[in-house]
Amino acid sequence: MVLVVGICVLVFPPFSAFASSGRSVPRSLVPQMFLYEEKPEKAQPTTVPGSVTWSIDMRTDARGHSDPVIQAHIAVPKRHLTAVLTLERNADPSVSASHLLELSFQIAPGFKGGGIYSLRSMSMKATESDRGDTLIAVPAKVTDNLYMLALNDLPEARAKNLELLERQWIDLPISYQDGKRALLTLEKGADGERVFNQAIQAWASDDLAGTAAGNAQ
Q1: Could you tell me the pTM of the whole model?
Q2: DSSP letters of 29-72?
Q3: For residue range 136-158, what is the model confidence (pLDDT) as tens digits?
Q4: Would you tell me the crossing angle of helices 189-216 and 155-164 to the nearest 10 degrees?
Q5: What pLDDT score does 65 carry?
Q6: Rounded to whole angstroms, how far apart are CA atoms 93 and 215?
Q7: Which of 17, 52, 72, 150 has its CA 20 to 30 A from that of 84?
Q8: Long-range Cβ pairs for the range 131-140 (8 Å, 24+)
């Protein structure tokens, strides 16, 4: 698998060898999740199964406006690793981003990687074996366990990102503090697809209402 981050191209061993074994079942009732870990001494990465559950939350700002927030709870018990992913529309005018993605890790004693060092990007793909396309976003490390992606707010980039978010599978390339690279691969499944569709439709409706109100002034 090839991951393109900015002008840097990261070449992973082909994860498609794992995906071609029948795991890629679109819209599964129970969404699939895998952690792929780079092993320099091996031609193929190690595959560690985990779980992901999707939900939607509503957050209310200081003005009383409620907006949907996509949430994913990720667990990889064999690696003593859990994480929470959130994706929400940016409501802070001082931040140049259309949407904000946060990935918060909880690492229990026994995690061999020493901790999480970076989150590089987020890619969306139709099936697990696809190469995928990277969201147009800027990554940032907030703390040792909290990472953020600020999705580009230019109109063309915003439209492209929202189109990509409709796809079924998600890749999150990360690296450990010991220097090894890994990949979190999440499936939306039926629940995740419902959550994404509900949030994206609400965001779109609100954007249209805001545009109409602005034109009326």
Answers
A1: 0.82
A2: SS-EEEEEE--TTSSS-EEEEEEEEEEEEEEE-TTS-EEEEEEE
A3: 999 999 999 999 999 999 999 99
A4: 160
A5: 81
A6: 19
A7: 17
A8: 131/1, 131/2, 132/167, 132/169, 132/171, 133/164, 134/3, 134/4, 134/5, 135/161, 135/164, 135/165, 136/160, 136/161, 137/97, 137/101, 137/161, 138/97
As given in the structure block, the two tokens for residue 45 are 């990465």
Q: Which residue(s) pair with 2 in the sheet? A: 11
- Short-list 183, 113, 102, CA closest to 137: 102
State the amino acid at position 122 in one-letter form. M
How far apart (Å, rounded) are the C-alpha atoms in residues 158 and 99? Answer: 9
Within 10 angstroms of residue 25's Cβ, the number of other Cβ atoms is 15
pLDDT digits (tens, 9 = 90+) for 28-84: 788 999 999 998 888 889 999 999 999 999 988 777 788 999 999 999 999 999 999
Name the residue with tokens 């795991």. 23
Q: Which two tokens stand for residue 23?
A: 């795991």
